[in-house]
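Hey, can you fold this one?
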Amino acid sequence: MALSYPDYFPSQYLGPIVKAAAAGEAKYRAALGSARSIPKLREIETDFLTDIAVAFVEAARAAVQGAENGYTCDRILYDLDEQIRRTIVFLDHDFKVTRLGYGLDDLRDDVKGSPRYVAALETIVKLVEEASAGAADAAAKRAAARHAIVDPLLKAKGWTVTRWADKTGVSKSVVHDFLDGKTIALQERNRLDLSLALGILPNQLPT
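Sure. Predicted structure:
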């Protein structure tokens, strides 16, 4: 049985995990022969699982930064847990180790408490923070561009934003989210109604 990976994880970024799996498996097989105690065996298994987990984080960070593949930060923690689970299944199936005094949940806890795992998680937190900051910056730029066009037109008509929404039948929350930059793109029907109410063409209303 080969080690498997989370569904929908972009295959072009699997390199670090595959490399860590090959190196870790060889190290694991060699170490099993010299493991004379349960604590030592548990340490060996934890090291192997941590190697895979850290490699997965490295691969996932690269996948997020290669945004063209659609892989996003919100998937990393779910897929990381799934990768640990699949690695445990792999160990159970291929090595059939008899564990005394500890089980699979204990192994999972050992991995999540290891300094290397914690350090890897910190890089994910930083990546999420950077992504959030980038999203906020993009929303602010959209808002500025939209207000620059819409505000003078509303002023010329003597309308508030609420009045503009009422004139078109478009939801007030949709209009406010559009102006605040929260909406990336309007539905075509809403774009048509909002632009015509302002006396401009749909393609003149900022995206």
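The chain has a mean pLDDT of 85. Let me know if you want another pass with a different chain boundary.
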